[in-house]
Design a protein that fits this description.
By secondary structure, this protein is an alpha/beta fold. The chain contains eleven helices and eight strands. The protein has an eight-stranded mixed β-sheet, with helices on both faces. It is globular and about 50 Å long. The protein binds adenosine-5'-triphosphate (ATP) and magnesium ion.
Length: 280
């Protein structure tokens, strides 16, 4: 057996062992279409969970298009690419944002961005498992779409929260994500958040159109996690480079995100109870 093959087998064995030991904590925030509000949601959801006393690691996995640092008006010397290039460990690139919220920032616009393979994503998940005990949840803000690498990441996550908006194009692209996950027999639990809704009807019809198609064509249906209003306060918080749930916690959309965080914690507790041998 050549060296590379035996290294892959070792990696695989380590991966299986680590996965058995870990509870369900890794959440990918994804979408088909770009600009649906993944980063806005992921950051405010992370802060809302932190506000519930949960220890959170939020990772900007929008490779080479990262903008979590801009959203939060933060700079860090340590970026995810340094981990991919094996120049730093995962522990070394973790940024302490607030008591319960740690962050890993990514790069943007590097011409020489390291090539990220499935093996690198496996190595990333193994490294996450080394720090997982420090956190209640690890949230991965993903690239739009589902290219091979992103899809691999989504499949390896315990939960996928698909952020869509009510527009038919966004619903169509959310359907594609569900389809790709289903066709890979992914065991991750799929949820939908409908963002930028004008009213409740907007959210209801978006979700029912999506599930009508997924049930009919795929025999699969994601769970509805909640909806978020199209809100000028959300827009303002982004312009101010502040987290909405901190800057304007009583705004409509902030309350909706906090309610989604509460709902998620409840669902996660039930999901972990029903998986024997796993720690909540
Ligand atoms: N609930 C909301 N109300 C009003 N505007 C919103 C809301 N959510 C997001 N936006 C707007 O949508 C824009 C895109 O949001 P965001 O960058 O979070 O999307 P994304 O899905 O992460 O994009 P990308 O696919 O490029 O990563 C933001 O700049 C913001 O102005
Ligand atoms: Mg984004």
């Amino acid at each position: 057996m050549n060296e590379q093959a035996s290294r892959l087998i070792q990696l695989r064995e380590l991966e299986v062992r680590e996965n058995i030991l870990s509870s369900s904590k890794i959440i990918s925030v994804c979408s088909g279409k770009g600009g649906t509000g993944k980063t806005f949601f992921a950051a405010n959801f992370a802060q809302s969970l932190a506000g519930l006393g949960k220890k959170i690691l939020l990772v900007d996995l929008d490779l080479n298009f990262s903008n979590l640092n801009v959203l939060l008006n933060q700079t860090s010397d340590s970026l995810l690419s340094e981990f991919f290039e094996q120049r730093k460990s995962l522990q070394e690139i973790i940024f302490d944002y607030s008591g319960n919220l740690n962050l890993i920032f990514g790069d943007s616009g590097r011409n020489d961005y390291p090539r990220v393979s499935r093996e690198i994503i496996n190595y990333f998940f193994i490294s996450l498992n080394k720090v997982i005990d420090r956190y209640d949840y690890i949230i991965l803000d993903s690239s739009a779409g589902a290219d091979e690498i992103t899809l691999h990441q989504l499949i390896k996550s315990d939960y996928n929260i698909i952020v869509t908006s009510p527009e038919p194009t966004a619903i169509m692209d959310a359907y594609v994500v569900v389809k790709l996950l289903s066709s890979e027999n992914s065991s991750s639990l799929k949820f939908v958040v409908v963002n930028k809704c004008l009213d409740k009807t907007d959210a209801d019809s978006a979700f029912s159109n999506l599930t009508l198609a997924t049930k009919h064509f795929l025999g699969d249906s994601p769970e509805f996690l909640g909806s978020i209003s199209f809100d000028a306060d959300a827009h303002k918080s982004i312009l101010n480079q502040q987290l909405l749930v901190r800057e304007n916690p009583d705004s409509k959309s902030a309350k909706e995100i906090k309610s989604i965080a509460n709902q998620f914690v409840t669902i996660n507790q039930v999901a972990n109870i029903s998986r024997p041998g796993q720690i909540i």
